[in-house]
Amino acid sequence: MKTLQQVKTELKEYDGEPIKIMEVCGTHTSSIFKNGIRSLISPKIQLISGPGCPVCVTASAYIDKLVDFSLKENYCVLTFGDMMKVKGNQLCLTQASAIGGNVKILYSPLDAVKIAMENSQTQYIFAAVGFETTTPIYAVLIEEITKNNIKNLKLLTSLKTIIPAVSFICENEDKIDAFLSPGHVCVIIGSNAFNELAKKYQKPFVVAGFEGEHILAAIYEIVHQIKNKQFNVKNMYVNAVSEEGNIKALTMIDKYFEKADDYWRGIGIIKISALRLRPEFTEFDAGSTFEEYKESPPKGCRCRDVILGRINPNECPLFSTKCTPLNAIGPCMVSTEGVCGIWFKNREA
Questions:
Q1: 3-state SS string over 191-221?
Q2: For the chain, which residues make up each domain, given as ranges?
Q3: Are 150 and 112 in contact (CB under 8 A)?
Q4: 313 φ, ψ to 5°?
Q5: 128 closest CA partner among 281, 294, 309
Q6: Does domain 25-54+173-235 match CATH 3.40.50.11750?
Q7: Given 88, 167, 294, 328, which is the most exposed site by the fewest CB atoms within 10 A?
């Protein structure tokens, strides 16, 4: 077994063919900066970021619906704080609130049950946004709504799944050599979820934790596989991730949700990449139907190229000049978990 120092030395001295590795988790992106990972590896090993933030890929039209609900009489939008500044085609929820919109920030979806039961004259719309990591709690929320016979609480969903997105990237981008698989999502879906992708596209997929040494070990595994022409799924986060995933959580997801096509802001339509409420639960749906949204990116914005791994955020002409967290022009800057938001926070002064 290699020591951490040996791993560092070999990665720093790597002089083989260039390797491009994509991480598809905002927490990994943050940890790479926090631990100075790029400074510890060879310049021939390039780390790039993918669509790791569900808020950032949420369609503008979805935000528009939330804004409209917040401005309706006797309606209230319930949301997490990271959705407040995500702009739709005209306004974000913060701006809607400033002109009289009714918006309440929650810390847990289950708080919505208590609020709705205590205020039966108000129709509540919960902004259910996320990947597989948060979808199980929305399933529990539906269960609680049903159990308590709550009629004034519905969900507007923008729930996305990571495997179709990674498959889309593999189909359209041939210069990515390997993937650092998202640890949080893998806790739910399991490492085996990537087996088919590894076999089909002949790329290593390595599941990693979030400490610096975890990421270095995963990069070392990827380099080792590529040097030996191996293309396997390797789970290096075994204390949290199993091969099959969280069966109970997956069962809850399958009970209340079904797969559907969806629009990813900055990318476009990805087939079978969303989770919608099943027909038998549509009474709890506030209008989360699939629409072929057609959004034109802001002039000069290169978020699509960032999300697909073609460029790093600092290569976009708007980055940190016109596009900042306080004036987010592109979708990747709208959240602190978005790749551009992370790069902005860690940019050199």
A1: HHHHHHHHHHHCCCEEECCCCHHHHHHHHHH
A2: 25-54+173-235, 60-162+245-284, 303-344
A3: no
A4: -55, -40
A5: 281
A6: yes
A7: 294
Which amino acid is present at 71? L
Could you tell me if residue 266 is left (phi over 0), alpha (psi between -120 and 50 degrees) or otherwise beta? left
pLDDT at residue 158 tops 70: yes
Q: Are strands 178-181 and 19-23 parallel, antiparallel or unpaired?
A: parallel
Nearest to 42 by CA among 18, 22, 64: 18
pLDDT in tens, 222-269: 999 999 999 999 999 999 999 999 999 999 999 999 999 999 988 889
Is 103's pLDDT higher than 60? yes
Q: Which residue has the tokens 């990674």?
A: 166
Distance of CA 251 to the CA centre of its chain: 21
Per the CATH hierarchy, to which homologous superfamily does domain 60-162+245-284 belong?
HypD, alpha/beta domain 2 (3.40.50.11740)
- DSSP secondary structure letters along 224-268: HHHHTT---EEE--TTT--SS--HHHHHHHHHHEEEEEEEETTTE
CA distance 260 to 272: 5
d(CA 82, CA 236): 30
β-bridge partners, 285: 155
Q: How many helices (H) and strands (E) does the chain have?
A: 14, 11
Write down the pTM of the prediction: 0.92
CA dihedral 300, 99, 123, 249 (to 10 degrees): 40
For residues 276 and 157, the answer to whether their CB atoms sit within 8 Å is yes
* Residue recorded with tokens 């596209």: 201
Give the chain's length.
349
